[in-house]
Here is the input.
Amino acid sequence: MRKPNGYGSIKKLSGNRRRPFVFVITKDGKQKAMGYFCSQVEAEIYAADFNKKNNKILHGHEIIFSELFYRWLPFYIDKHQPSKSTINSYHNSYKHCLSLHEMPLKKIKYYHLQDIIDTVKRKGLSYSTCKKIRSTLSLMFKYALMMEYVDKNYVMLLNLGKNKQKRPHKPFTRQKINKLCSNLNIEGVDTVLILIYTGMRIGELLELTKDNVYLRQKYIKITKSKTKSGLRIIPIHEKIFPLIQIRMQTPGKYLICRHDEKPYNYSIYCTLWDKIMLALNAKYTPHDCRHTCATLMDNAEVNYNAKRKILGHACSDVTNGVYTHKDIRQLRKAINKIK
Here is the structure.
């Protein structure tokens, strides 16, 4: 659609630039740059908002799927403060919706959305990936309804099919745990033990900053998690206390840092994980550590509510994430039951 006179234009600058797209307007016979952007969609959003503020609304302008995503995501981040891993998950889900990117929202029907799910399944991707895509679409279209961009939401009708696990999660055996303890000289092995004896999600560990580790009180405070109940206090098990002490003495803001003091992202950590598994002749995933922690607590007959608090599962007696000194002592006693 041709834009009206005076609306401004978007250009892509040459060269290898971090923000190659520029929105320009003509003022006093000269072109003036109003902003630089990483993508054309971000530039289009800025242009639409700029013209709306200046009473130059583009008649007949239809919001497309990609514009909705880039309008919704900053709104959601500002309101809910999701973790980096969650934000990355939204971006990955958006990439799977490539066929919708240029479609006007009001022309997107149920079968367009279902085709996204069906295509992902045909590619052999997991049930979990389908769930993440549906979740992202649901949040986007709830926002679209709120902003009155659409009057229908078909996402709730999507069919994901049955969950057929390709590889059920399995806990580490006692033999493998002992092998980890005797191979602490291998880079990263300490992180595996920390995951096992805290029950943290991998994203929670990678985003854990040192100011949320309380050595004197012997607990960790999780401030960024994929769920609200994941925001919690985790007591430090006596077996991993020395490992965390060593990590606290290394340079860097984050508990788990690379040699350049930068935090790991999931992809880079998985490379380290694979090297550890190869060195130990083991086949586990980072999430298996969480299952191991749950299994060890079950075997040690840890109190049900204490177990749920430590793992960050929804628990009826946790009120607004407030923990008393008595709570922390009880959780520390519970976690140290496992060996």
About this structure: The chain has three domains: 9-53, 65-157, 174-335.
